Structure formats: C-alpha cells, structure tokens
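Revision sheet: structure tokens.
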Amino acid sequence: MMITMRIKALLTTVALVAGIATASFAQQAPPGSLSGGGTGYDNPAARGGALSDEKREAIRRKIEAVRIWRLTEVLNLDTVTSAKLAAYLSSMDQQRMELIHDQMMTMRELRRLLNTPKPDEQSLKVALSRLGQSRHAVQELRDKELNGLKDILTTEQQARYVLFQQEFQREIREMIAGARRRGAAGRGQMGNGPGGPP
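Predicted:
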C-alpha cells in the first residue's frame, strides 16, 4: 500500500512538472525558474514572451499542492497538522514571492541602466544596494520559516522536512530540465524533414 502511494505521488509529480515544463518551454523562459528561490521570468529577450502572472500563479499553486500532499505522506502528518503546515508554508511562500518580485524588478532596472550610453553610477549603486537587501531578506525569511516549524512539527519531522525540501526542489529542476531537452530535441527533429534544414 505504501509503495503504491509513493508510486502514485511520483507519477503525479512527473505529470504535473511535465505539463509545467512544456508550457515553460513553449514560452522560452530561462532555465532555473519555478524553484530554488527565483522566477526566471524577467528576461524580456526570451522568445515567445514571459508567462503571464496568472499562469505563473497557477503553476506555483499546483506545485505547492503536490508538495503539501507529499509532505503529509513523508512526515506522516494527521489532517490537523497537515492543514496547519499548509497554511504556514503558504504564508511564507507569499512573503518569498514578494521578495523575489522585488529582485526581478531590481534586475530589470539594472539592465535598463546598463543599456544606456553612460550608466549613472549613483543609480547603479542604489539598485545594487536594494538587490543586496532583498537577497538578505530572503535568507532571513528562510531562517524564520525553519524556526516557525518548531511550533508545528516534531524535531524528527523538522529534519525530514529539510531533507524533503532539498530533494523536492532537485526533482522539480531535473524534471523541467529534462522536459525542455526533450522539447528542444523534438523541435530539432521537426525541422529535419523533407524541405527542412539539413
């Protein structure tokens, strides 16, 4: 029964991320997005444009739903604790997204400043300072998140959570990268048919 549930969880994650990766590849978003603390959708030169805020939020919610579902199983949580953890992590994620959005805006500002004939040094200093503060705030939020888990999870569950988070983020990155590689290969094969490029 436990093996069946794990297989089902893995298949659900694979299906979800495959769909996300396909959408991301179609949009030509830069790699490394959706996980690990960055959105990756601030590249205005990306072919196909950026994902809309609505699509990005829908993807984030789906990943979060799968993460909570798998955490409930891995940490062996009861219904009450699972709901409490979900609410807590959602609050942390919302704060994180606001900080990441600020980082995106600052990176765009840096690009804009550097694309001028003579970048203003003072404006660059302000943007760099803001970027440093934002990154520091993200780390502080990560520490706050782990500290807050002490009120929800046992010590063993906290340790399992830390390991799960690392593994889950790695899974997401690898699945998206793999789906993009397959998508790129498929696009290359389509161009090699009769009348296509050699």
